[in-house]
Amino acid sequence: GTAEIGVTGLAVMGRNLARNFARNGFTVAIHNRSFAKTQSLVDDHGDEGTFVASESVEDFVASLARPRKIVVMVKAGAATDAVIDELVPHLDEGDIVVDAGNAHFPDTIRREKALRAKGLHFVGSGVSGGEEGALLGPSIMPGGTAESYQWLGPILEKISAKVDGVPCCTYVGPDGAGHFVKMVHNGIEYADMQLIAEAYDLLKQGLGASAAEIGQIFADWNTGDLESFLIEITADVLQHVDAASGSAFVDIVLDRAEQKGTGRWTVQNGLDLGVPITGIAEATFARALSGSVPQRTAALGTLPAHTTDWQVEDRAAFIEDVRLALYASKVVAYSQGFDQIAAASAEFGWDIDRGAMARIWRGGCIIRARFLNRITEAYERNVDLPLLLADEYFTGAVGNGVPAWRRVVAGAALHGVPTPAFSSSLAYYDGVRAERLPAALIQAQRDFFGAHTYRRTDRDGTFHTTWSGDRTEQDA
Ligand code: NBP
């Protein structure tokens, strides 16, 4: 065969990815379980480049040049395993299978191991940017062997988004690293969206402003440090008017946020690794709370609020406070997400370059933002930076906003506006910078009821106090 790249799974994502390859001059072998989708791609877009369509897996594999490079873009889970099982008997040593779906990284680790045992390369690759990204240039996060990237890199970098001429695609690390990083990307996306939603709610309740007015505030913010895709679309959404009712669109949408599960995976992994990703966790739980209909119904009009109406006097100052609080909380959420990447990288031996991850998220993906440059620069200054917040740029950028952040969180608490992500981010900030934490008391309690032992501030060793006896201290 002669095709340089193959795509199997031609629903919205695979179809657009195949077109992207073709538009960039690659000869693309295409295949889908049901041939209708393959046919329709050829019928609708066959003139965009060179497609080699096959009805059978056998013909599809045969149409590819070796080592074969096959992108699987099917529904994550059992479908991915089914497709791999079908492909493998037709492949030869050194061939490369890329799973570009939203796989959970433990599945990717399992699949990589199984294919490696057969002499094949398995590349779990995060692809972000939705339908439009797949067609016009996504952010691509490929894992697998470094050797496979020698073959894939030039092709994937060519079709990826570019920022300042730099591709939003780089080798992430072995086996599950690519899908892991995509998972954390999605977790950060949850946090970013929740923070924006809280800022909107604060402006709405504090200023009594309309959706359109708040949309204008977000549009202004998008010209500064907060410039990002999510802020831009927020401004757009808030200014959109519902045709049927004539109301602001956001006001007619049912207030129950759904999720497909990547936020949940991120939080579960944060717990597994013991990394406090409170911003992502609060964002995920906030979606869960919004959908807790029986609880919300039971609470509505029942739980006393003890608040007064919020009448902000200096509107411009309040808007600036919310902007600074949003920026600071956002840096916390990213700082936590990058901690999670560092922890997983150490745990799984992935050696992930965090600065490079921030670089490939600058374009193509949902969290694309100007400020990601600052993160790349921070990790360039110190590749082992233990805390993004402690980088010299961020200590300044966040530090200036701390008084505003405190006013906003305090105001929200006084006036009964729920700001779980703003509030927990500030609590994290104060916790991580504290000279001494009440964890000392937790250790004392644990030693009291469970003889779990403690260490002392004044000398080395592990100790237990005989709480129920004479309360002498023993070496443990
Ligand atoms: P879907 O996730 O809706 O999957 C549909 C595709 O899977 C079709 O090609 C279908 O073939 C194929 N398929 C299924 Br279902 N079961 C199969 C099986 N047992 N054997 C072979 N093929 C099977 O497609 P999508 O929305 O394009 O998403 C593809 C992947 O990309 C997913 O993993 C998704 O999570 C990920 N992703 C999506 C987005 C997005 O914005 N949609 C963004 C980023 C990542 P058929 O045509 O014969 O039914």
From TrEMBL:
<comment type="pathway">
    <text>Carbohydrate degradation; pentose phosphate pathway; D-ribulose 5-phosphate from D-glucose 6-phosphate (oxidative stage): step 3/3.</text>
</comment>
<keyword id="KW-0570">Pentose shunt</keyword>
<feature type="binding site">
    <location>
        <begin position="32"/>
        <end position="34"/>
    </location>
    <ligand>
        <name>NADP(+)</name>
    </ligand>
</feature>
<feature type="binding site">
    <location>
        <begin position="9"/>
        <end position="14"/>
    </location>
    <ligand>
        <name>NADP(+)</name>
    </ligand>
</feature>
<dbReference type="InterPro" id="IPR008927">
    <property type="entry name" value="6-PGluconate_DH-like_C_sf"/>
</dbReference>
<dbReference type="GO" id="GO:0019521">
    <property type="term" value="P:D-gluconate metabolic process"/>
</dbReference>
<dbReference type="InterPro" id="IPR006184">
    <property type="entry name" value="6PGdom_BS"/>
</dbReference>
<feature type="binding site">
    <location>
        <position position="102"/>
    </location>
    <ligand>
        <name>NADP(+)</name>
    </ligand>
</feature>
<dbReference type="InterPro" id="IPR036291">
    <property type="entry name" value="NAD(P)-bd_dom_sf"/>
</dbReference>
<keyword id="KW-0521">NADP</keyword>
<feature type="binding site" description="in other chain">
    <location>
        <position position="190"/>
    </location>
    <ligand>
        <name>substrate</name>
    </ligand>
</feature>
<dbReference type="Pfam" id="PF03446">
    <property type="entry name" value="NAD_binding_2"/>
</dbReference>
<feature type="binding site" description="in other chain">
    <location>
        <position position="287"/>
    </location>
    <ligand>
        <name>substrate</name>
    </ligand>
</feature>
<feature type="binding site" description="in other chain">
    <location>
        <begin position="128"/>
        <end position="130"/>
    </location>
    <ligand>
        <name>substrate</name>
    </ligand>
</feature>
<dbReference type="InterPro" id="IPR006183">
    <property type="entry name" value="Pgluconate_DH"/>
</dbReference>
<keyword id="KW-0311">Gluconate utilization</keyword>
<dbReference type="InterPro" id="IPR006114">
    <property type="entry name" value="6PGDH_C"/>
</dbReference>
<dbReference type="Pfam" id="PF00393">
    <property type="entry name" value="6PGD"/>
</dbReference>
<feature type="binding site">
    <location>
        <position position="452"/>
    </location>
    <ligand>
        <name>substrate</name>
    </ligand>
</feature>
<feature type="binding site">
    <location>
        <begin position="74"/>
        <end position="76"/>
    </location>
    <ligand>
        <name>NADP(+)</name>
    </ligand>
</feature>
<feature type="binding site">
    <location>
        <position position="446"/>
    </location>
    <ligand>
        <name>substrate</name>
    </ligand>
</feature>
<feature type="active site" description="Proton donor">
    <location>
        <position position="182"/>
    </location>
</feature>
<dbReference type="InterPro" id="IPR006113">
    <property type="entry name" value="6PGDH_Gnd/GntZ"/>
</dbReference>
<dbReference type="InterPro" id="IPR013328">
    <property type="entry name" value="6PGD_dom2"/>
</dbReference>
<dbReference type="InterPro" id="IPR006115">
    <property type="entry name" value="6PGDH_NADP-bd"/>
</dbReference>
<comment type="subunit">
    <text>Homodimer.</text>
</comment>
<comment type="similarity">
    <text>Belongs to the 6-phosphogluconate dehydrogenase family.</text>
</comment>
<feature type="domain" description="6-phosphogluconate dehydrogenase C-terminal">
    <location>
        <begin position="178"/>
        <end position="468"/>
    </location>
</feature>
<dbReference type="GO" id="GO:0004616">
    <property type="term" value="F:phosphogluconate dehydrogenase (decarboxylating) activity"/>
</dbReference>
<feature type="binding site" description="in other chain">
    <location>
        <position position="102"/>
    </location>
    <ligand>
        <name>substrate</name>
    </ligand>
</feature>
<feature type="binding site" description="in other chain">
    <location>
        <position position="260"/>
    </location>
    <ligand>
        <name>substrate</name>
    </ligand>
</feature>
<protein>
    <recommendedName>
        <fullName>6-phosphogluconate dehydrogenase, decarboxylating</fullName>
        <ecNumber>1.1.1.44</ecNumber>
    </recommendedName>
</protein>
<keyword id="KW-0560">Oxidoreductase</keyword>
<dbReference type="GO" id="GO:0050661">
    <property type="term" value="F:NADP binding"/>
</dbReference>
<feature type="binding site" description="in other chain">
    <location>
        <begin position="185"/>
        <end position="186"/>
    </location>
    <ligand>
        <name>substrate</name>
    </ligand>
</feature>
<dbReference type="GO" id="GO:0006098">
    <property type="term" value="P:pentose-phosphate shunt"/>
</dbReference>
<comment type="function">
    <text>Catalyzes the oxidative decarboxylation of 6-phosphogluconate to ribulose 5-phosphate and CO(2), with concomitant reduction of NADP to NADPH.</text>
</comment>
<feature type="active site" description="Proton donor">
    <location>
        <position position="189"/>
    </location>
</feature>
